[in-house]
Design a protein that fits this description.
The protein is mainly β. Helices cover 9% and strands 50% of the residues. The chain has one domain. The longest helix is centred in the first third of the chain and has 17 residues. The strands form two sheets. It has a six-stranded antiparallel sheet with strand order 2-1-12-11-10-7, with no helix packed on it. The protein is built from one helix and twelve strands. A hairpin with a 2-residue loop joins strand 10 and strand 11.
């Protein structure tokens, strides 16, 4: 009987180790290039974060609830802001600072601006509120960088993929952003 029990336990352990974890990237919107107003990425290799549609502002208890994607040409380039407050407590800001954008690779790095306060660097920033209400503001900088690949820049449609390691200023904490994708249409 002891042999049979140990055999069953061994088989159960082997079957349990064969069960695959769900890949968070499978929960993201598909990578499209038709202006679908989608944004998605995987945070720290385990959290899928995605938002779709233009910004909608509603009010509960007198406070604004923001959800959606805002995109515009401003501050010397393409500005993409993604809101999902208070549901997931994330806000993402991506700036690609070039007045004439073309498909290709862009380095995400340090936040710099000129004397007129136009951004002149490509950046990715993530604002996060934890379960205890503490604010965190992760961003690319000269040590924490990433890459953005624009795949479409025509007919007011901007699509691409991105990944980065974001740093929390003043600490050694980082957040990885992988499998990033967006597909937006400017109005």
């Amino acid at each position: 009987m002891t042999i049979r029990l140990s055999t069953y336990l061994c088989i159960a352990f082997m079957l349990a180790s064969c069960v695959k974890k769900k890949d968070p990237a499978s929960e993201l919107p598909p990578p499209t290039t038709t202006g679908q107003m989608t944004f998605g990425c995987v945070l720290n290799d385990n959290t899928a974060y995605s938002v779709h549609g233009p910004v909608i502002v509603t009010y509960s208890f007198g406070l604004p609830d923001n959800y959606g994607i805002s995109a515009m040409m401003a501050w010397g380039g393409l500005q993409l802001q993604v809101y999902e407050f208070p549901t997931n407590l994330y806000n993402v800001n991506m700036s690609i600072c070039d007045t004439v954008l073309h498909p290709g690779k862009y380095v995400l790095g340090q936040v710099l601006d000129d004397s007129a306060h136009n951004l002149k660097s490509n950046v990715l920033e993530l604002f996060f509120i934890d379960g205890n209400g503490k604010n965190y503001y992760y961003q690319t900088d000269s040590f924490h960088t990433g890459q953005l690949i624009l795949t479409r820049c025509s007919d007011s449609i901007y699509s691409g993929t991105f990944s980065a390691t974001l740093g929390l200023p003043g600490t050694t904490k980082t957040m990885s952003v992988t499998a990033g994708r967006f597909d937006i249409k400017l109005k």
